[in-house]
Automatic annotation (TrEMBL):
Pfam families: ABC_tran. One of its GO terms (molecular function) is ATP hydrolysis activity. NCBIfam families: 3a0107s01c2 (TIGR00972). One of its GO terms (cellular component) is membrane. It comes from the Bacteria. This is Phosphate ABC transporter ATP-binding protein. InterPro entries: AAA+_ATPase (IPR003593), ABC_transporter-like_ATP-bd (IPR003439), ABC_transporter-like_CS (IPR017871), P-loop_NTPase (IPR027417), PstB-like (IPR005670). It comes from Hyphomonas oceanitis SCH89.
Length: 276
């Protein structure tokens, strides 16, 4: 197992290059020796995982293997669960986000999150998007705010469908539109990373296809990490895949390699449906 992780890390580092727009090097996030427990029960065991920028990393594995728990480490959402204790380092922009000096609220604007079930605020479509920029003081004028709302809705592929009814309630939209609204809301505060926890599980196949197209578009700009139960979805949308089992990272690598030529027996058993 160790060999696999080391090899994949080398592959990633070999592709290291300077991002001209942001002046950043890959990987975007470096997770080192992450352990997570809920009370006495350990859910994540010593996971180290580099996450590259401008691509989609899929976390897959059987129910209860720790995918969501690990995802929540990346924006410190586990802080909100009293029994949960996280150790290890998650380096972003040269800082360990687990450092007590890091403000989790600010962190969550840099690392946005989209949940299983679309959860628009009980506000208008416009205010759903404007909320974040307002509380983070990102817009100086009303024109700035209008522009941010339009840009976010355009990026989320929703503008044409809602531009004539921005004052309607967010929850008057269809499920798929609501999920794109939630993605637009995450984008509005200019995140660098977007976490998605099974974003299509409440959607029909047409709405799912629309979100998958959107994810493919967004990856040109953002670092995206997605938890999915669907191996087909992981294969369709991600460039890298990490396979979790019983709280361990069994294997990670290029998505094509994981699905066509897994190195570990447990990965092969899972992707061929022998368990999980
Ligand atoms: N809030 C919590 N309190 C206590 N234990 C928890 C909590 N959340 C998760 N766990 C436990 O941690 C382990 C990992 O759960 P997690 O939800 O991260 O797995 P998962 O792979 O995302 O599962 P699923 O695919 O079913 O959503 C499980 O044993 C689960 O019971």
């Amino acid at each position: 197992m160790e060999t696999t992780i080391t090899e994949s890390r080398e592959t990633l580092t070999a592709g290291t290059s300077m991002d001209e727009t942001r002046g950043l090097t890959y990987p975007r996030i470096e997770c080192k020796n992450i352990n997570v427990s809920y009370g006495d029960k350990q859910a994540i065991f010593d996971i180290s995982l580099p996450i590259p920028d401008r691509s989609v990393t899929a976390l897959i594995g059987p129910s209860g293997c720790g995918k969501s728990t690990f995802l929540r480490c990346l924006n410190r959402m586990n802080d909100t669960i009293e029994s949960c204790k996280v150790t290890g380092e998650i380096i972003m922009d040269g800082e360990n986000i687990n450092d007590p000096d890091i403000d989790p609220v600010l962190l969550r604007s840099r690392v946005g999150m989209v949940f299983q079930k679309p959860n628009p605020f009980p506000k208008s479509i416009f205010d759903n998007i404007a909320y974040g920029p307002r509380i983070h003081g990102l817009a100086e004028t009303r024109e700035d705010l209008d522009e941010m709302v339009e840009k976010s809705l355009r990026r989320a592929g929703l503008w044409e469908e809602v531009k004539d009814r921005l004052s309607s309630p967010g929850n008057s939209l269809s499920g798929g539109q609501q999920q794109r609204l939630c993605i637009a809301r995450a984008i509005a505060v200019r995140p660098e990373v977007i976490l998605m926890d099974e974003p299509c599980s409440a959607l029909d196949p047409v709405a799912t296809a629309r979100i998958e197209e959107l994810i493919d578009e967004l990856r040109k700009r953002y670092c995206i990490v997605i938890v999915t139960h669907s191996m087909q979805q992981a294969a369709r949308v991600s460039q890298r895949t990490a396979f979790f089992h019983l709280g361990e990272l069994v294997e990670m690598g290029e998505t094509d390699q994981i699905f066509t030529n897994p190195r570990e027996r447990r990965t092969e058993d899972y992707i061929t449906g022998r368990f999980g």
